[in-house]
Design goal:
Helix content is about 65%, strand content about 0%. The chain is an all-alpha fold. It is elongated, with a radius of gyration of 20 Å.
Length: about 100
Amino acid sequence: MTARKLSISVPPEVEETIKAAAAEEGKPVSAWLAEAAVEKAQVAALRAQGRAAARELVAEYESEHGKLPEESRQRARRFLVEAGLLDDESWPAVG
C-alpha cells in the first residue's frame, strides 16, 4: 500500500498522549494515527447508519399511524442520545 504524507498540528499535550499510546502498542506514530482515524471514521459511519435507521423507523410509523406523539419522539431521542447514536443537537426534537 502506498502511503501519503499528511501534516497535522496538535497541542503539545495531545502530541505526548499520541506518542505514549503509539509506543505502548509498539507502533510508529503515523501507523497509530492512521488506525485511530480509521476507527473514528467507522464509528462515525455506524452512528450515521443508526440516525438514518431511526429516521426511517419514525417515517414508517408516521406514514402508517400519523404524527409520532411528541412525548414518544422525546423518549426516542433521549434513548438515541444515551445509546451514543446522536449527539444532543443532531436530531430535531420536533418535525
